[in-house]
Amino acid sequence: MHTLKKIWTYLVIAAVAMLAAVNYELFVFPNQFAPSGINGICTMIQYVSHISVGYLSLLVNIPLAIWCYIEVSKPMALRSMVYVVTFSLGLLILDRVDLSAFAYVTENGTSKILGPMVAGVIQGFVYSILIKASAYTGGTDFISAIVHKRHPNKPFFGMSFAINSAIAAASYFVYGCQMEPVILCILYTFMSTTVGDRLMKSGREAICFEIITEYPNEISEELISKLHHTATFLPAKGMYSGKETSVLLCVVNKTQAASVNRIISHYPYTFAMVHPVSEILGNFKNLNSTGREVKEVLDAGDRQTL
What is the per-residue pLDDT for 249? Predict the structure, then answer.
């Protein structure tokens, strides 16, 4: 079963790599702007020299992948190379296919921002799938992994921001000294980062209930039996009435919030304060509304540096 899951993971990585290649051909290249990361540099080189990003991506990423394989993580490097090779081959194959009927580009520039916006959304989706599969897109991701391995407490954000800023600035000169490619690069980066971050956190978000009640045992039993989540009991005292009461702290999956509300609504003088939890770390099961555990469909590898 584990072998089949691993094979499925590699197939998914290859599939999203092809999706990324199609994304570049339909929304990035026709709109003449440089996306973020090393591929942004490759895109500008392709625009000037007509050397395909497919070749350039392989040229840059193969030595970085070997470096990561030796120093950081063998599974991560192998999975990332599956993405890089498939992405590069996809670009080389699609270069020979006429996709002009499907590519989004406007002759007079009207609504040109839609191309980079869609490209950013698609690439954000690709990022989120790769992170769940313990893989990278290559380029700055490989550099980030190496830096993190050597300096675990050193954030890579500053270096990544500097690289993307340099790409945006360089695109001004590469694409005929115009501000539009710079703006499109920034827009693409914002969309891909925002969508990717949102999708990656969606499976780790939860809801925290602080339940004030006189029936802690009964409510706890229902939470355990119906939702398969327990609660933490805290003795409390109402300062207005001076009456002893109880507080239950319970963290559940977002899909179970309505079920918790139904449970506590049956008990008099019971109410809850509810607030979102952006991420759960540690031993917390991802359950659906019926209390069944949601299984991971991708093999996570060793998750080093991720």
Answer: 92
